[in-house]
Amino acid sequence: MFNKVFVVFSLGFSVVFCSAQQVRPSKSSEIYRDLKTLKNIPKVLYLAAHPDDENTGLLSWLINDKNVETAYLSLTRGDGGQNLLGTEQGAVLGLIRTHELLEARKLDGAQQFFTRAIDFGFSKNTTDTFKQWDENIITADVVWVIRNFRPDVIICRFPPTAAAGHGQHAASAVLAEKAFKLAGDKNAFPDQLKYVNVWQPKRVLWNTFRFGNNNTTAENQMKITVGQYDAQLGMGYGELAGLSRSLHKSQGAGTRSVAGIKTEYFSHVAGEPAKASLFDGVVKSWTAKGNADIDQSLDKIISAFNFNQPDLSLPALLALRKKVMALKDSALKKDKIKSLDQIILSCAGFMGEVVTNQAEAVAGENYNFNLNLISRAKNPVVLENVKWLNRQEHLNRKLSKDSLITIDHTIHIPDDAALTEPYWLAKPAKDAATFYVPDETLVGLPEADSPLNVLLDLKIGSEKFEVKLPLSFKKLDPVRGDVVESLRIIPALELKFAQPLYLIKENEDLHLSLNFKVNSSKQFNNGKVNLMYNGERVGGGDLKSINGKDFTVDYIIPKAKLASIKSNQLQLEADFVADGFTYNKKQVLIQYPHLPSLQYFAPATVAVMKGDIQMKVKKVGYVQGAGDFMPEFLRIAGIQVDVLKDEDFYGNPDESAGNSSLNRLSQYDAIVFGVRANNTEKKLGRWMPFLWSYVKTGGNLVMQYNTNQDTTVDQLGMYNFSIANKRVTEENAEVKFLNPNHQLLNFPNKITADDFKGWVQERGAYFPVQWDKAYEPLFEMHDTGEEPLQGSTLYAKYGKGNFIYTPLAFFRQLPAGNVGAARLFLNFLSAQKN
After folding, report:
1. Whether the Cβ atoms of residue 528 and residue 576 lie closer than 8 Å to each other
2. Which stretches does DSSP call E strand in 162-304?
3. DSSP of 239-262, one letter per residue?
4. Which of the 8 DSSP states describes residue 537?
5. Helix/strand/coil for 72
6. How much of the chain exceeds pLDDT 90, in percent?
7. Alpha helix ranges (H) inside 348-457
8. What is the rounded CA–CA span in Å between residue 794 and residue 820?
9. pLDDT digits (tens, 9 = 90+) for 286-326
10. Contact (CB, 8 A) for 538 and 558
């Protein structure tokens, strides 16, 4: 399977490497499935726009029932969506969703590909989408994936029309058809032909759907029955699909595992029409390719396969390997040797790993590693050579059946070893909609292979294999047991500002702190810190010597220097120069239970908001939502933020009877709902009556946006309003003030059109579309060519207090350092102070 062992044919020698951290044998049921898949020549590429767009039920059926090699091409990594798990946004969220897709593929067995397109957020049609995406670049990426993977059938999730529901969805269908026509044309993207050959799939189909009230299926379309029970899986393909899709946890895509068969529908798009089967007219077998002997050998191997002793198949598999190696079709040979060698190593019960007890390493330093090897085959696997990073060792040692071999070795990490980070995040994006890819041959890959590997020369029978084992970290976790992850290369020294954002008023000095994290035993001499704005040094100082300790240094940028900078939104950069080296990066480590540890490096930068930013609140209660920056922003602004819990509404048993929930809530100048709180906080139904009472007696309740999916309460406001999937995606859309004299637009900050400049990605989403007459809308805005929307902020008096509902995208604007958004939100919080 794709995430376990991957094999590359090169110079008659097989190279097996592991995109995880160990080479491990597949289960017998998986080996058996892979053998049946090896018999089938066709491939399927499923194509859509985002993580979670794929039809996992169809993928599971194709792989496990039809035994057809299948892959999902997601044009984007899901960077533009929301995050139910934490505060990560943008490219970092895309990194999380990339690995959620990889975890899903481990379950359903499909392969995974991407283009370099950035998910820039919701778009309403293909015209909007291709204003952002360079259509030629993304088409080239799709062509590259087709020429590499060589699918016979391409299946789109969406049509190129408004029925797709999202401009990027529709664009995926446009690109699929365009790439289908170009992949077999030698004049299209000829630079790719240095690495791959042209390839012409047989057809493109649209997998029509029923999504809510949107039904694009028809009885005259081609129909396939899927979802059947698979005894080797112990579940139906629909049940497996539910498990796979539910791994998209960052977007709350938990899905029921539905037992029983269902019908999938397909509409013809391009190429030769299919009448009875997805694979009409496609070469399906080795015999049809003129290699009946391979078919016959596989039939015998499959018929004789012993689930309890898969190593009994080794002699026949090694003989089959010689036949496959003799193929004249080099691309087919490379492809099938990859799968066959995976099967052979699995039948041999081979496991290999190179592990240390440290999660992180620095280039140029030495670390102790253990090489652990074992084989469970009756006929021995011979370890001929070990190629460490810095030398080769000849062993010619037989691996005794089921006996672990451990070889200790000190490895010097090369001085020029690159930092461990996703290849598409190693350098700034080309533009707002396209990632920079340092090597064109990486396009399509979910992640690059580890560059730091121990190479094993193995011999099984008379066949030779070269196995790559990436340098890894292994620990015993008291809850999870063995944890094995990639060894992460980090810089000798890291810099980061002590907080992600600073707020200063006009005519104030900027006081900031810079944290130094020392990862190396080396000494840093004659160092200098530079604080830069727009290429100009605005502060810093000398650090003559640093020796092995983490520390923090405070700096001041004087108000005179700040006054010379006209912008009220600054991004400062920091670097440390010592002994001819420049250090200017900070590690970002992402750790969630369902994913491996994910690492990338960001520049040592900080956003600074300067100017007239007034606030009149001191203490805020916060109802936790799906994870956003708001609590941290408010604390940076000097406001006390308490995350509300059950006891804030019901009290503790020890408290006096007079300490009512109303008394406890009344201490807050405002109570704020985090984004999607109604989708994530399941106690809201019990809390809402207390919150309404809080408002009625003089409180101020500010709600950020929610969606209609998986809601806790039906009525969020004291007066009714209804939410729809209405949004303004143009971040620079004109904003009309419906009542410029409204208190929320004048106290304590005077809000003008300038406060809506410099917004990122969008104005807002999930606007209310109907509301009680007690509400007053504050703004009117719309995307180009669309009807005006007035639901971006609703205000109502209730009793002595105020209620504000605002689906404006503050959760994006505040991390970006947008001063206008900060001023507006602080006005909302101050509504009861005027």
Report:
1. yes
2. 203-208, 210-211, 214-215, 222-226, 229-230, 235-236, 262-271
3. HHHHHHHTT-GGGT-------S-E
4. E
5. strand
6. 85
7. none
8. 18
9. 999 999 999 999 999 999 999 999 999 999 999 999 999 99
10. no
Q: Identify the three-state secondary structure at position 736.
A: strand
Please state, in angstroms and rounded to a whole number, the distance separating the CA atoms of residues 750 and 60: 57
Q: What is the pLDDT of residues 438-462, one digit of tens each?
A: 999 999 999 999 999 999 999 999 9
Give yes or no for residue 13 having a pLDDT over 50.
no
User: Structure tokens of 685?
Assistant: 């139904």
Distance in angstroms (rounded) separating the CA atoms of residues 807 and 781: 13
The reported pLDDT for the residue numbered 653 is 52
Residue with the bigger pLDDT between 212 and 804: it is: 804
Q: What does the angle CA 615 – CA 619 – CA 622 come to, to the nearest 5 degrees?
A: 105
Contact 735, 757 (CB under 8 A): no
Confidence of residue 709 (pLDDT cuts 50, 70, 90): confident
Look at residue 803 and give its three-state secondary structure.
strand
- Cβ count within 10 A of residue 121: 20
Give the sign of the dihedral formed by CA 536, CA 539, CA 544, CA 548: negative
- Band (20; pLDDT cuts 50, 70, 90): low
Confidence check: pLDDT of 780 > 50: yes
Distance (Å, rounded) from C-alpha 715 to C-alpha 696? 16
Measured N-to-C along each axis, helices 237-245 and 56-64 cross at an angle, to the nearest 10 degrees, of 130
Residue type (1 letter), 104: A
Q: How far apart are CA 142 and CA 128, in angstroms?
A: 20
What length does the chain have? 834
Q: Is the pLDDT of residue 8 over 90?
A: no
Task: Answer yes or no: are the C-beta atoms of 305 and 3 closer than 8 Å.
Answer: no
Q: Which two tokens stand for residue 207?
A: 């997998």
For residue range 228-245, what is the model confidence (pLDDT) as tens digits? 999 999 999 999 999 988
Instruction: Give per-residue burial for 102-114: e unless 16+ CB within 10 Å, then b.
Output: bbbbbbbbbbbbb
Nearest to 118 by CA among 377, 424, 434: 434
Contacts of 3 (CB under 8 A, 6+ apart): 19, 20, 102, 105, 106
CB contact at 8 A, 619 and 640: yes
Check residue 171 and give its pLDDT: 97
Q: State the number of CA atoms in the 13 A half-sphere of 217 facing the CB.
A: 13
Please name which of 700, 708, 732 lies closest in space to residue 827, comparing C-alpha atoms. 700
| pTM for this model (two decimals) | 0.90
Residue 772 near residue 671 (C-beta atoms within 8 A): no
Q: Which residues contact 310 (CB under 8 A, 6 or more apart)?
A: 28, 31, 346, 347, 349
Strands 523-533 and 569-578 turn out to be antiparallel
Say how many CA atoms lie within 13 Å of 80 toward its Cβ: 24
12 pLDDT exceeds 70?
A: no
Give the pLDDT band (50/70/90) at residue 379.
Answer: confident
Q: Which residues contact 681 (CB under 8 A, 6 or more apart)?
A: 623, 624, 625, 687, 712
The per-residue DSSP string of 426-438 comes to: SS--SBTTB---S
To which residue do tokens 């044998």 refer? 25
Q: What is d(CA 584, CA 228) in angstroms, rounded to the nearest whole number?
A: 55
Alpha helix segments (H runs only) across 150-214: 167-182
Half-sphere exposure of 96 (CA within 13 A, CB side): 28
